[in-house]
Design a protein that fits this description.
The protein has five helices and 22 strands. By secondary structure, the protein is an alpha+beta fold. It has a six-stranded antiparallel barrel with strand order 2-11-14-13-12-15. Strands 1-21-17-18-22 form a five-stranded mixed β-barrel. A four-stranded antiparallel beta sheet has the order 3-10-8-5, with no helix packed on it.
Length: 481
């Protein structure tokens, strides 16, 4: 009896335990089947706005001097630097002397060349004087010889022609006159002689009458001889003498004319001296030109970018002494995808950004559009950048943004709102119940941290910008901002 009760009690506890376990299992199963509400996902959001956005093309490169805006200055002759008159950063102007070579050797050569010019000029002057003297002597000798020859020829012609009838007639008249004079003086002498014999006339008067008679006789004899000579003609000796004189005077004229050769020789000497002087002057000019090369001048307005040499350095024509550049305008050469070619236009406004000035934009202008490189399918563009305050530096890295189009009424969202999924670009839009809805969108222009949405959302929509990467469609969200 007691054992039976004990068994009943054990069975009761076992059945009670099973019932209890079954009830607990049922309650646990009901608890699992009942759904739990998930907690809202914390996110940040922004409003899609209707505003203007500009389409840009972006490239990068290094700032360099504009074409013809820089120069590497060197010496045109080898030598030792005597002075370098500028340093890095100094402004320079066109034609300004920025460095000078030692000119002591070239100056000595110039002094010697000047002395040679003076000596050659003096020799040329003396040669010119000799030419003029030779010309005067030659001209005078020829003139005198010509006159003498003319006189000799005239005398020979006179000798050969003999006496003219007029001369013979004059000589006969001279005889008649001499006879008349002799007759008169003879009569006077006879009269005075008679008077002297009778003591009437003095002896002195007799002597005078006799002398006059003798003179008259002599004149008569001379006139008769002259007439005889005129009638006889020139003697062979006289003709021969006249001919010899003509020959001698002709030879003298030929000799005087032959002296023209001497004049020509003097002229050639003088011309040689003139040419020598010209050569010496050319040598001097060449040395002076070379001396001007000892001064290195800036070919442009700009600043010294780099000084590469110092006084005392030996330089040659390959040495770069100074780098100078005009910083008023710089250029940026950037590579862009060939697909952007149709968007580009020379003259378009550009903006440049450089790490040297964070957050600062510098304006520029698209200056040239190059050809497409078939290997890289890229094209080079050149942007001209005004730099009046010289803030930008040569060699600085820069990013260029070229404005190629403007959309004044675009739906714009922050770039962070766009998520790339397998279906494409998506944006989560939050409704009034704070439920996020996934929208597939088509994007347009990007500018800075903004992007244009062509379709998929509307202006005024709340879009999630942070926390959406692990978000599922129609998730409950909690907007933190």
């Amino acid at each position: 009896m007691c054992q039976f009760k004990a068994i009943q009690i054990i069975v009761f506890f076992i059945i009670g335990g099973m019932v209890l376990v079954g009830c607990r299992s049922t309650n646990r199963k009901n608890a699992v089947d009942k759904p739990l509400d998930p907690a809202p996902v914390p996110v940040r959001a922004a409003i899609a706005k209707l505003e203007a956005i500009t389409q840009t093309v972006t490239g990068q490169g290094v700032l360099m001097p504009a074409p013809n805006g820089d120069a590497k200055l060197g010496a045109m002759v080898a030598g030792r630097l005597a002075q370098v008159l500028v340093k890095d950063g100094d402004p320079v102007h066109v034609g300004e002397v920025v460095a000078v070579l030692d000119t002591s050797a070239i100056n000595a050569q110039i002094a010697g060349a000047r002395a040679a010019v003076r000596a050659a000029s003096a020799e040329a002057g003396q040669a010119q004087v000799a030419v003029r003297a030779a010309k005067v002597s030659q001209n005078t000798g020829v003139a005198q010889a010509e006159l003498a020859l003319q006189a000799a020829k005239a005398h020979l012609s006179k000798v050969l022609a003999g006496a003219r009838p007029q001369q013979i007639s004059a000589a006969a008249s001279s005889i008649d006159q001499a006879l008349a004079t002799l007759s008169s003086t003879t009569a006077d002498y006879t009269r005075v002689q008679f008077l002297f014999k009778h003591g009437i006339a003095p002896a002195r008067e007799l002597d005078s009458a006799k002398a006059a008679m003798e003179v008259a006789k002599a004149n008569l004899a001379g006139a008769q001889a002259q007439l005889s000579l005129l009638k006889a003609g020139a003697r062979p000796q006289d003709i021969q003498a006249a001919q010899i004189q003509v020959q001698q005077d002709q030879e003298a004229l030929d000799t005087a004319k032959a002296n023209a050769i001497a004049v020509e020789l003097e002229q050639r000497k003088a011309q040689a001296m003139v040419e020598k002087t010209a050569q010496k002057q050319a040598d001097l000019a060449a040395l002076q030109t070379t001396a001007s090369m000892y001064a290195i001048r800036s070919p442009l307005n700009g600043v010294v970018v780099h000084r590469n040499a110092n006084p005392g350095d030996i330089v040659d024509v390959t040495s770069i002494i100074l780098d100078v550049a005009n910083l008023n305008h710089l250029v940026l050469t950037a590579s862009l995808p060939a697909s952007d070619l149709s968007l580009l236009k020379v003259g378009e406004r550009c903006d440049l950004e450089t790490p040297d000035f964070p957050g600062k934009r510098f304006p520029g202008t698209l200056q040239t559009i190059g050809q497409i490189d078939p290997t890289s399918n890229m094209l080079n563009v050149r942007v001209l950048v005004p730099n009046p305050q010289h803030r930008l530096r040569i060699g600085s890295f820069a990013i260029v943004k070229i404005a190629v189009g403007a959309h004044p009424h675009a739906v714009v969202v922050p770039k962070q709102a766009v998520v790339s999924r397998q279906a494409g670009n998506v944006i989560f839009v939050v409704d009034k119940s704070d439920v996020a809805h996934l929208r597939i969108v088509h994007l347009g222009v990007e500018e800075g941290d903004r992007v244009e949405v062509l379709s998929g959302i509307s202006a005024g929509n709340r879009v999630i910008t942070l926390g959406q990467y692990e978000l599922a469609n129609q998730s409950k969200v909690r907007i933190l901002n």
